[in-house]
Amino acid sequence: MTEENRSAWDLCRFIKTLTYFEVFPVLNWVQKLFQGRPENHRNSPNAGRKMGIILVAGATGAVGKRVVKRLLNQGYKVRCLVRDIDKARSILGNECDLVVGDITKPETINSLVMSNIQAVVCCTGVRVQPVEGDTPDRAKYNQGVKFYLPEIVGDTPENVEYNGVKNLVEAAVKYLPNTGEKAIFDFTQSSQELKDIWGALDDVVMGGVSVSNFQILEKTALFAGNVSTASSGGFASVRTKNFSPVIDLSGYAGVRLRVKGDGQRYKIFLRTESIWDGVGYSCSFDTVANTWIDITIPLANLTPVFRAKSVKDCPPIDPSKICSFQLMLSKFEYDGGLNPKFNTGSFTLEIESIKAYGGETFPQFVLVSSAGVTRPGRPGINLDEEPPTVRLNDQLGGILTWKLKGEDSLRASGIPYIIIRPCALTEAVGGKELIFEQGDNIRGEISRNDMAEICVQSLQQPKARNITLEVKEGENNPNSINWEHLFSHLKSDQSEQ
Predict the structure, then answer these.
(1) Which of 237, 395, 427, 435 has fewest C-beta within 10 Å?
(2) CA end-to-end span of the chain, whole Å?
């Protein structure tokens, strides 16, 4: 299409743009009135949720279902690996994604299960119940009041506690992101949220006639259109709606884009102001025609810009307040300078992902194990003083022995991890002080509620990386828990090797 036949400014598209980005609320009210927009339309994308997906294995178990609930309450996106969708939905509700798989069957731990995961919480375990049977809700097993002689029901400890964990670890190695990275937009996984969040913002708002769109394809997103300098125009862009809540990139060095372009120079904007026409922090990047490349943009290299003019004396970007992203093709660089690689006409920029990089390394695999795993056969152990699982390890198929081998498979994987060994689990409300120890000599009990909270909190603690700990509850009821302090005194497993 030539410059000459693209000279008519489009008022309707101008109004549509302002309406999409809710610049003037009255326009959205009129649109809702006459077009009958659904009441459940999501005006503000929730990209400010914790970035990436947490995969929970053993999600329908007594600890696992509590982990799922806490993750959701804290804003994480949660995917649950389950064997029975209907049963799992009745236990876990509708807020989490459910995928069918079985850790004892490695072929089922595929890309559908593992794609776009940020971390794994493994709460799997063999089914143990009293020899004389139990109620359907496992009341005898859960009550922790009277000791019932236990037995393994179903699969063996070797298959679940070792082979299953090892299978999950090996799959996680292939799919977990590089340490210190967080997915912001993963276009390899199409979703309605991604489709709703990005909209065209072209030079029609300045009187121009350029046209662009943003499409979610099968494994990528496509920013494409036709850019024109007619009618004093010269840029095409796509921008997200304002995030609610904002994205916090504190502690990250920058953003990394995986793109395939057309050889032109584009810009990315990160905005910390929710107003329509405010300052954006920008950086230009070059593409290679028809070639996938990684674009690394340090936050320190972002230039504060207002309408293509750099803003002097503007403070550096506040990474804790990212409220929108924007991609742009413009004839201008900054302060009147021209884009040396700009061409009018059609353009294409394909995007696979936008990630934050250079952050602290947090645990990416949380494994719920058991206190006592190193005690069977340990010299000097008085079995009469040990918990039932230690005394009955051989009768229970070597359950603790296989748990330890499962732990070892995780330690050898190279994944940043935390292995949590709880003492006897109870159905108590919880809220007691937590006592962390190392060396596997601890005895006591801990609420499943508290155990689930530890799993979730450890994902946010860099000092919890590559450690193994045992935990029990104390006597006191603290008003709050200083999680950083709890983990700060523990030694990493590597330091002891």
Answers:
(1) 395
(2) 67
Residue 410 has which token pair?
């995780």
Region at 446 (left for phi over 0; alpha for psi -120 to 50; beta for the rest): beta
User: Residues in the chain with pLDDT < 70?
Assistant: 1-9, 11, 13-14, 18, 20-51, 129-149, 192, 495-497
Please state whether the peptide bond connecting residue 38 to the residue before it is cis, i.e. omega within 30 degrees of 0.
no
Q: Which two tokens stand for residue 215?
A: 């499409």
Please report the beta strands in 358-410, taking only residues with DSSP state E, as ranges in sequence order: 365-368
Closest of 96, 252, 236 to residue 180, by C-alpha: 252
- Distance separating alpha carbons of residues 472 and 450, to the nearest angstrom: 9
Sheet holding 53-57, edge to edge: 97-100, 77-82, 53-57, 117-122, 365-368, 417-422, 467-473, 434-437
Mean pLDDT of the chain: 88
Q: Of 303, 235, 229, which is closest to residue 269 (Cα–Cα)?
A: 303
The residue whose two tokens read 């959701």 is 72
* C-alpha–C-alpha distance, residues 354 and 214, integer Å: 15
Inter-residue contact 304 to 311 (CB < 8 Å)? yes
| DSSP H or E stretch at residue 20 | helix 11-20
Amino acid letter at 395?
Answer: Q
pLDDT digits (tens, 9 = 90+) for 345-365: 999 999 999 999 999 899 999
Residue 112, Cβ density class (10 Å: 0-12 exposed, 13-18 middle, ≥19 buried): exposed
pTM reported for the whole predicted model: 0.74
